[in-house]
Amino acid sequence: MLAASVVIYTFGLPWLAVAADLDPGRAVAKGLLPFLVGDAVKLLLAATALPLAWRLVNGPSVRHR
After folding, report:
1. Which residue of 3, 16, 52, 57 could cross-link 31, Cys pair, CB 3.0 to 4.6 Å?
2. Cα separation of 14 and 27, whole Å?
3. Is residue 63 in some structural domain?
């Protein structure tokens, strides 16, 4: 998920700068900074939910010796 966000910003910020006629610093201020907190929350929720989802799918862990 982090890699996907990096790819989106890598291509999206230059596109925003050209399309909106912004300098790179302004493009980062308008197209990256407002979304960092939300992206971090989304990443943490996904990182928490994935192990929980696997536990639900796999059921209770039974260890045989």
Report:
1. 16
2. 8
3. no
